[in-house]
Amino acid sequence: MWRLVNQRSRRLSHRPALDELDLGQRLALWALARDHGQKDLVCCGPIYQGMKVEGGKIRLSFDHSGSGLVAKDGTLANFVIAGADKKFVPAKATIENMTVVVSSDQVAKPVAVRYAFDNAGVPSLFNKEGLPASSFRTDEW
């Protein structure tokens, strides 16, 4: 199954035409790659693939990372993490090679992560081609 991320890739502004242009460009990339055979074209942003618990941290891996992951404006935001109690708290997230490592001092034994999982979540995780990651959750609660 394929999907195109339609979250705003810019901060909310009074310029919706720019958001529509951005969406149109991403739709064009999708069509070129999927329907017109340009297989080497990066057509979407990072999509959550899996996680691995490493002590007090969770390492996330992604498909469609393109030539690498980047934090828009230099800082990853909108990540939350939870332990077995299922209580999510804001988390620190950093890019390490082609993965994202998420942790919080409030969660000693993490079991789940969510990213941009609310209606106001502005994307901060992109691939180097400038395409935003889709929101995701690692849990099924």
Which helices and strands appear, and what pairs or packs with what?
Layout: H1 16-35, E1 47-54, E2 57-63, E3 69-71, E4 79-82, E5 89-90, E6 92-96, E7 99-103, E8 112-115, E9 125-127, E10 136-137
Give an overview of the whole structure.
- This protein is of the alpha+beta class.
- Helices cover 14% and strands 30% of the residues.
- It has one helix and ten strands, in the order αββββββββββ.
- It is elongated and about 45 Å long.
Helix/strand order: HEEEEEEEEEE
* Helical content band: 10-25%
For the report, how would you describe the main beta sheet? 4 strands, antiparallel
Globally, the shape reads: elongated
Strand percentage, roughly? 25-35%
Mean pLDDT: 82
Strand pairing plus helix content: what structural class?
alpha+beta
Which residues sit in consecutive blocks of at least 5 with pLDDT less than 50? 6-21
Count up the helices: 1
Strand order of the largest sheet: 1-2-7-6
Radius of gyration: 16 Å
Number of strands: 10
What is the CA–CA distance across the termini? 22 Å
Task: Write a concise keyword list for the protein shown above.
elongated; alpha+beta; 141 residues; single chain; 4-stranded antiparallel sheet; 10 strands; 1 helix
Quick summary:
The protein has 141 residues and is of the alpha+beta class. It has one helix at residues 16-35; strands at 47-54, 57-63, 69-71, 79-82, 89-90, 92-96, 99-103, 112-115, 125-127, 136-137.
